């Protein structure tokens, strides 16, 4: 039995999971469907800094989610979303339905794209979301810097998916942990004011992944996202998004930003 510990942030009007947490929950749901793997979850209210309490830092010294404790393997604690993807697929995806054998070149390709997400897309999109939405002061340089870098990175992903269904694998690719590493972030792209239709191959890939029942279930653990990049915003949320995009566009103009992605 694996115990999965994820974020559950309670805000003024919403209760949402975080992009990194969905890496673990989606893979666990895929493993449950494929192999019958059972797990339990414990939500963490990061708005109350529960992840900083001693019991949690004993599992993850960095005080961040997600983290898991594998009670079927001596109570081993694993933290960092990408390490969790690697661990769970290596130990429990015995038929390589969601991953690749270590001697397969696609194993290394998957590692490369997962590393790209971990070191690039996740941090840049996280900063974009912070400067656009969370920061009290709307700093023009910060907004255009991180939104611009997020756009550049999604341009790379869009090019990768232009003639593929999934990020890694032979032919048009195979759904794998390389895709799972990206799903939570791509689903939250709208928070940066970047419309997903700007990247049609990413949009089609995300919609394709959303068709999987385990993905749908994984996105509901510990609670469903407040919105999806695939769904148009409405009402007050749409108006706020429009105003924020105007601020970002003005910041881009102020600093001479021009979109470019290889």
TrEMBL record:
<dbReference type="InterPro" id="IPR004045">
    <property type="entry name" value="Glutathione_S-Trfase_N"/>
</dbReference>
<dbReference type="Pfam" id="PF00043">
    <property type="entry name" value="GST_C"/>
</dbReference>
<dbReference type="InterPro" id="IPR040079">
    <property type="entry name" value="Glutathione_S-Trfase"/>
</dbReference>
<protein>
    <submittedName>
        <fullName>Glutathione S-transferase II</fullName>
    </submittedName>
</protein>
<comment type="similarity">
    <text>Belongs to the GST superfamily.</text>
</comment>
<dbReference type="InterPro" id="IPR036282">
    <property type="entry name" value="Glutathione-S-Trfase_C_sf"/>
</dbReference>
<dbReference type="GO" id="GO:0016740">
    <property type="term" value="F:transferase activity"/>
</dbReference>
<feature type="domain" description="GST N-terminal">
    <location>
        <begin position="12"/>
        <end position="96"/>
    </location>
</feature>
<dbReference type="InterPro" id="IPR010987">
    <property type="entry name" value="Glutathione-S-Trfase_C-like"/>
</dbReference>
<feature type="domain" description="GST C-terminal">
    <location>
        <begin position="103"/>
        <end position="229"/>
    </location>
</feature>
<dbReference type="InterPro" id="IPR004046">
    <property type="entry name" value="GST_C"/>
</dbReference>
<keyword id="KW-0808">Transferase</keyword>
<dbReference type="InterPro" id="IPR036249">
    <property type="entry name" value="Thioredoxin-like_sf"/>
</dbReference>
<dbReference type="Pfam" id="PF02798">
    <property type="entry name" value="GST_N"/>
</dbReference>
């Amino acid at each position: 039995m694996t115990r999965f510990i994820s974020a559950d942030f309670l805000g003024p009007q919403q209760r949402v999971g975080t992009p990194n947490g969905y890496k673990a929950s989606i893979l666990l749901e895929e493993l449950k469907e494929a192999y019958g793997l059972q797990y339990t979850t414990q939500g963490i209210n990061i708005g109350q800094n529960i992840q900083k309490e001693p019991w949690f830092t004993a599992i993850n010294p960095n005080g961040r989610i997600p983290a898991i404790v594998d009670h079927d393997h001596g109570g081993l604690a694993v933290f960092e979303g990408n390490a969790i993807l690697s661990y769970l697929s290596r130990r429990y995806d015995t038929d390589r339905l969601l991953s690749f054998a270590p001697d397969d070149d696609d194993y290394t390709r998957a590692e490369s794209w997962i590393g790209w997400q971990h070191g690039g897309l996740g941090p840049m999109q996280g900063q974009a979301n912070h400067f656009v939405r969370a920061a009290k002061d709307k700093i023009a340089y910060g907004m255009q810097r991180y939104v611009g870098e997020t756009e550049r990175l999604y341009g790379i992903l869009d090019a990768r998916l232009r003639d593929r269904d999934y990020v890694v694998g032979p032919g048009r690719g195979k759904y794998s942990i390389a895709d799972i590493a990206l799903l939570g972030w791509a689903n939250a792209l709208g928070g940066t004011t970047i419309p997903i239709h700007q990247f049609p191959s990413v949009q089609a890939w995300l919609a394709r992944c959303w068709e999987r029942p385990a993905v749908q279930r994984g996105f509901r653990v510990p609670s469903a996202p407040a919105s999806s990049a695939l769904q148009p915003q409405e009402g007050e949320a749409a108006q706020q998004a429009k105003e924020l995009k105007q601020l970002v566009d003005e910041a881009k103009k102020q600093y001479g930003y021009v979109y470019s992605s290889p």
